[in-house]
Amino acid sequence: MLTRKINTEKLYRLLFLLLFWSMWLGWPFLNSEGHETFRRFMVLMIPVNLTFIPLFFFNTEWLIPKILDKRGVSSYVVSLFVMIAAVTVLHLLMKDWLLPEDIHHKHRSLYRTLIPVMFITAVSTGYGFITYLLDQEKRRREEKQERLQSELAFLRSQISPHFIFNILNSLVYLIRSRSELAEAVTIKLSELMRYMLYESADAQVSLDKEVDYLSNYIELQQLRFGEDVDIRFHKEGRPHSQIIEPMLMIPFVENAFKHGVGYVKNPLIDISLIFDEKTLTFIVKNKIAPDMPEDKDSNSGIGLRNVKRRLELLYPHSHQLTLRKDNEWFVAELELQFGHE
Hints:
By secondary structure, this protein is α+β, with helices and mostly antiparallel strands. The protein folds into 2 domains: 2-141, no CATH class; 179-337, Heat Shock Protein 90 (2-Layer Sandwich). It is 66% helix and 13% strand. It is built from 11 helices and 7 strands. The protein has helices at residues 2-30, 36-44, 46-50, 52-71, 73-98, 101-107, 110-176, 181-199, 207-225, 250-259, 302-314, and strands at residues 205-206, 230-236, 243-244, 268-275, 279-287, 319-326, 329-337. Strand 6 (319-326) and strand 7 form a beta hairpin. The chain is rod-shaped and about 110 Å long. Residues 296-300 have low confidence and may be disordered.
């Protein structure tokens, strides 16, 4: 879309220049029918009129972006007057050289020479200012896009280590307890890591792959906790052909397992996915202990901060995220709209 917009801007500029110079150079000839003296004058003036083209582009391509942008308005105005004076003198000299005596005395006056120079200067200044402002705005958009892409790349680079640390902690616990589930957990972990390393490296993935990844993660946690934690996973509808930012939903589930077990009596984690063609609704609820101590870990909340920022960058106008405490529950609700501009 950005490339198409840039090409459209260039096309409009080219069309304007072609139309303007065609009118400037050709219109007098179209209106000189039956006026042989004027037609002869216009033919003789072709070299003079052609000098308006470098005057136009000297102002738009050098004075405005170089002098105005680098040295300010005062320097630009002075340069503009110097250019006008120099071109006016040049045109007077060219008329002396090109025009015969019977035409010369009518068209050599300073007024007749200065007016077209001033007109072309005014048009080029207006055109130059508009294109300068458009180019500045495009540069700002590109710089902003580059900053956002860099930030997004950094946020994505945080996902895998953060997730792996959490799972490895679970694996260490199972190995220390000599649980026969350690092998099954290791296999399941390898499946999840394969997704992280090969699938989530893409900018976006299909929604059904992301849902499969989420399901595998929940199964891994069910293996880990068994009957100690009531884990409920409900899906309504099915994914369509949408694409989504990889590992966008998993931080909410990770957060639920981090804060919804341990200090919580009768822990319960409830996860719901509701699909339709244009909207995904994702709800994660976990019970919390009313007197749960504050988490002093400096990495606490990194997953939620990460996903919130990614949502702001990638879905600025097409998502709604609600995080709230409701009595003994912590609820995270995400609504994501697909195909929204």
